[in-house]
Structures are given as structure tokens and as C-alpha cells.
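Posting for a labmate who doesn't have an account.
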Amino acid sequence: MKKAILATILLGMFSSLSVSASEEVNLRNTYNASDLKVLSITNGVGSIRVEVADISSIEVEVAVEPTTSYFFFESDISDAEISASTNAGELALEVPVDDSEQNWLVRIPKHLGLSIDLGVGDVDISNINQNVTANVGVGEFSATLDQNSFKSLDAEAGVGGVSLSGFTNSENESHLVGNSAEISGEGSAKLSVDVGVGGINLKNQSE
């Protein structure tokens, strides 16, 4: 009887700890972009959604959720916060919390270039007409853009495919298990995307 009571108490403790640790943390911040040239975002697991708008600042929202690390316990994300550092006109953002899934929603001004590094998950960029560099380990990269704003677009999926919609002057080459594409335009911006395993979807919004 005592063993049963003890087991019930322990189970209740584990459940309580698991529930309390699993609460989502929502982070928000705004950064002045007037002196910036590039925004860099690093994320281990989750998603990054970027919207380009007629604004002068960078608006960031991050939903951080814990992932199970061991036994009944989930990772502690209570101290999660956005880390920001600036160097030579580049603002670098990340939420340095282990064992977490992070879903980013970012709105940026039209002049700001992008550098994205995502381990596992999806990247979605809307109305981008400035420089973009993106590396995704496993997942999907999608973007809508105006081909006329770009000088070159290079996309490569190590294992997976590259889908192009509405582009001219494009070359799409299939490999044994992967795919790559090169697109030229009359603009000045450059886009370079590398996905290890997954897919790349690019759409020309000026079609």
C-alpha cells in the first residue's frame, strides 16, 4: 500500500514538473534598422517567417517551446530571451536555449539584407527584393520575390528538389538525389540558398 502511495506521489511530481516546464515563452522586441545593412538570424529547430514591409525598424516575435530532453522532464525555457549583437552594420539575433523549438516571425524594412541559418525546419520569406543568404540543414525554404530586383539567384538542395515558378533566364539541373538552379536578372541583389535535405521553392511575384 505504501509503495502504491509513493508511486502515485512520484508520478504526480513528474507530471507537475513536466507541465510546468512545457509552458510556451513568447518573446517580442523591436530594433532600429536605420544604420543596419544585414539582419542575421540563427535558429536550431523550428521555423523562420520573414515579411518585408514599408517600415523603418525590425519587429521580432519568437514563440519558444520546450522539447523533451530526458525521462519525464522537458527542457527549461523560462530564461529564454533574444540575444542581439551588432557588428559592422549587421544585427545578429538568436535565442540561445538548448532543447527548444523556436518559431520566428520577423518584419523588416526594404533596404535590409538577410542572412539565415536554420538547423531543422522551414523558412518562408515574402516580398524579398534584397540580398539573401540562407542555409537550412533539413527542411524547406520558400520565397516570393521580384526577379527584376536580382542580379543572380542560386539555389541548391543536396537531397531534394528546387521548384521555380514564373522565372525567365533560369537553369535547373538535376543531380542523383538533389537539384540546383541558377537564375539571372537585371537587378543588383543576390540570393544564395543551400538546403541539405529538403526542398527550395522560389516564386517570381512579377510574373
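Reply:
Got it, the C-alpha cells are right above this. The first helix runs from residue 2 to 21.
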